Amino acid sequence: xxxxxxxxxxxxxxxxxxxxxxxxxxxxxxxxxxxxxxxxxxxxxxxxxxxxxxxxxxxxxxxxxxxxxxxxxxxxxxx
Length: 79
Fold this sequence. Notes:
- The protein is an all-alpha fold.
- It has helices at 3-13, 36-50, 67-78.
- It has one domain: Non-ribosomal Peptide Synthetase Peptidyl Carrier Protein, Chain A.
- α1 (3-13) packs across α2 (36-50).
- The longest helix has 15 residues, at 36-50.
- It is globular, with a radius of gyration of 11 Å.
- The mean pLDDT is 96.
């Protein structure tokens, strides 16, 4: 699972108001300060790191709502 790498990328590109280290895997990232603009930067960094492309169907608040949701989506796209 890509969860640790997602955490690293989120800490660099997420611009959260809450430290990533203090978040649980299922914490709400939008409550932690994730914005729609930061989501775009996060998505691009994830695409670069994992050599994937998020389909339009995955570009939703649900996909980027938690570290766990992001990692699950990345894992699905890597398969």
